[in-house]
Amino acid sequence: MVGDSGQKHPASVATLVLGLFNNVRGVHSMKLKTIGAALALSAFAAAPALAQDPVKIGFISTLSGPAGYLGSQILDGFKLALEDGKLGGVPVEIVAEDDGFKPANGRQIADKMLYDEDIKLFTGIVFSNIAGATVPDILDADAIYVSPNAAPSVFAGEGCNENYFVVAWQNDSLHESAGQNANNLGYKRAFVLAPNYQAGKDAITGFKRMFEGEIVGEIYTQLGQTDFAAEMAQIREADPDMVFQFEPGGMGIAFMRQYQQAGLLGEIPMVVSEPSIDGVILDALGDAAIGVHGSSHWVPDFDNEANKAFMEKWEATYDQPVTFYASQGYDTALLIASALEATGGDISDMDAFRAAMRKADFDSVRGDFEFGPNQHPIQDWYSLEVVAGEDGKPMLKTKEVILEDHGDAYSDQCKM
Amino acid sequence: MTLFLEQLLNGLQLGVMLFLMAAGLTLIFGIMGVINLAHGSIYMVGAYVGSWVFLETGSYFLGIPAAIAAAAATGVLIEFFVIRRLYERDHLDQVLATFALILLFNQGVSMVFGLQPLFVATPELLSGSVELLPGLIYPVYRIAIIVSGLAVAVGLYGLINHTRLGMLVRAGSTNREMVRALGVPIGLLYTLVFGLGALLAGFAGFMAGPILAVQVGMGEQILITTFVVVVIGGVGSIRGAFFASLLVGVVDTMLRSYLPGFFREIMVGPEADTLAAGLSSMGIYLLMAIVLLIRPKGLFAASH
C-alpha cells in the first residue's frame, strides 16, 4: 500500500474531490432546535379543558454560512410574534431546520417533515432556488406554504397555488421599485448585476420593467461568489450613471466592500433594492454606505403602531441590527396567528384556514397590506437613503412613496 | 487596454492566493501522499484567528503572526493526531477522515465565533486605491496581496532549492521510500512540511479577510479551485503549483469578464448570458480536463 500510494493519479483525485464537494455543504445541515414544546406543555397543565396538541410549523431556512443571518433573522422575527408559545391563542411548535443553502437539502427536509412528522404548515425559505425545489413538494402534499421571503415568478403567474401565500413581495416587484427609484433620481445609464439564479433573473427583469433609461452593462455573477474584482473593472470601464446590484447576504457585503476598495463608491452612485443594503450589510459597511439609494416595503423608522411595537420588542430581545427579513418573519407569524385565531387552531379544514389567511387580518409592520388574486402582497414601496444617524452610525431613512398599492406583473396570469 | 490590464492584475491576485493554498497542498500530497481536504479549514482558522486579533487589537500587522501561528499549530496538531495514522491507508480513508475534520472545524468555528461572518476593514496603510497607469486605478490592498504572494513564492523557491530541508522535501516528493531508507527522520519531515503548508494557508486566509467575508465554510470555496491547481500543476511540484495558480487565476478572471461580451456578439437574448455564466464557471475544469488529456500527470509532474 505504501509503494502504491506513491503513485499519484491526478485525474482520479480530481474526480474524487469534486464529487465529494458537490455535496459538501449539504452534509453539515443539521436539526437546530425545537422550541415551543415545553411552553405548550405548560399550557396543557394550566388549562386542561382547552388542551390541544400544538400546531407544528415547519421552518426550513438558510441558517448557516454567509447567508445564514438571513434565515436567522426571519426565525428571530417570527419568534418575536409568539406569545407564551402561542400564535393567535393557539399553541404552536416551531420545527426549524437548516437547508445549508442547498436546494436538495430543503426538499429532503420538507419530505421528512411532511411524511415523518406530519407537518401541514410551512414557512421559512430565504432563497428562490431552494423554494423552487422545495415548495412544489409541500403543495403537492396539500400542505400550506407561507413565504416570508423568496417569491420567484414561477409561482406568481400560471404556477400560482391556493396553498401558497407570500408575505414578503413578489421577487420582481422588489426590484421594480428600484427601477422606479432610479427614474425618479434622474439616472439614464445603468449597469446591472445579479447572481445567476431565479431571483437574480427576476431582479434584473423587475428593474428593467420600470427603468426607462439605457442598460449599459448587464452581468450575471455566480451564486455564492465573493470576489467581484473582475466585475468592478467592467463597471469602471462602462462608466454608467448608476449601478444597480442585487447581491443578497454575504455576497452583498463583499460586493459593497470591494466597490468601496475599488474607489467606485462615491464616484458612481448605487441604486439598490432592499436586499443589497439590509441592516447587517449596513452594519458591516459603516460610513462607506452613506449616500446609497435604496427602495423598500419596510424601513425600521416606519411610524406606525405595529412597527413601533415590533422595533421595541426586537431591541429588547436581540442585540443584532434588525433587517427587513426579520420584519417579514414577524409579519408571517402575525398572518399565521390571525388565521389560527379565526379557525381556533384547526388546520385540518383547509378551506376555512385558507379563507382566513386570504383576509390578511393583521396589523402589518409596513402599514397597509392585502393579498392580490395570486396571494402575493399588494403594498406601498418607499425610497430610502443611507444617512448618518444621531449616534453617528449609518441608518436607513425613509424618503417618499414611489409605488402605491403595487402588486406584481404576474397576478393576472394566475387562475385559481 | 486598461480594462485588460486590470483584469490581468485581478487574475494575478487570484492566482497568488491560490498559490499560497496550493503550495502547501501539493507538498502534503506529493511528499506524504495524503489528500488533505482539511487544508481549507486551516485557511479558515487562519482567517478567523488573525481577523479576531486584528479586530481586538486594531493592528493588522499583529494579525499576521497570530494567523500564521494559529494555522501552523492547527496543521501540526492535525498531522500529529489524525493524518499520521493515515499515511499507510487508502486515499478514500484519508478523504473520509479529513472530510470529517472539515465538518468538525466548521461546527467548532461557528460555536466559537458564531454564524455571523466577521468583518474586517482593510488596514489604514493599505486602503484606498492608486493609479498605476493613467486610467488604471487599482486597490492598494490587492497590490499588497500580489506582492506578498510573489515574495512568498520567491522565499519558497529559495527554501526548496537551496536548503538542506528543501533538498529533503524535493527528494521526498520524488522518492519517499528512498529518503526513508537513507535514514532521514521522515516523521519529523512530514510534520514540518505539514506545518509549513498550514502556515501558508493561514496566511492566505488572513489576507483574504478584508476582501471577502470571514465566514464558516470559506475554506471549501477556495479548496476546490486549489485542487484544480494542484492537479494542473502536477502533484508534488511547487513550480507547477505556481504556474498553474497563475494560469487558473488569469483564465478564470478572463473568462468571467470577456465571455459574456463574446456571446452577446454572436447570440441574442438572455441565453447569451446564461451560456456565458455557465461556461465561465466551468472554464477552469475544462482547462484541467484539457491539461490532463495532454499531460496526464500535470504540467510539471515530479518525475518518478
Q: Explain this structure to me?
A:
The complex is a heterodimer of chains A (416) and B (304). Chain A is an alpha/beta fold. In chain A, 40% of the residues lie in helices and 21% in strands. Chain A has 15 helices and 15 strands. Chain A has helices at 2-6, 10-21, 24-27, 37-46, 68-80, 103-115, 128-140, 171-184, 198-210, 229-238, 250-261, 279-285, 305-317, 324-343, 350-358; strands spanning 31-35, 55-61, 86-87, 90-98, 121-123, 144-147, 164-166, 189-195, 214-221, 242-245, 271-273, 293-296, 370-371, 377-388, 394-406. In chain A, the strands form 3 sheets. In chain A, strands 1, 2, 3, 4, 5, 6 and 7 form a 7-stranded mixed sheet that branches. In chain A, helix 5 (68-80) packs across helix 14 (324-343), helix 6 (103-115) runs parallel beside helix 7 (128-140) and helix 14 crosses helix 15. Chain A is globular. The N and C termini of chain A lie far apart (65 Å). Mean pLDDT of chain A is 85; it is low at 1-8 and 23-50. Chain B has a two-stranded antiparallel ribbon with strand order 1-2. Chain B has helices at residues 2-32, 39-57, 60-81, 91-113, 140-162, 164-174, 176-181, 186-208, 218-233, 238-266, 270-294; strands at 129-133, 136-139. Chain B has one domain: ABC transporter involved in vitamin B12 uptake, BtuC (Orthogonal Bundle), CATH 1.10.3470. Chain B is mainly α and 304 residues long. Classes of the chains: A alpha/beta (416), B mainly alpha (304). At the A-B interface, helix 1, helix 2, helix 3, helix 5 and strand 9 of A face helix 1, helix 4, helix 9, helix 10 and helix 11 of B.
State the gist of this model.
The complex is a heterodimer of chains A (416) and B (304). With 416 residues, chain A is α/β, with parallel strands linked by helices.
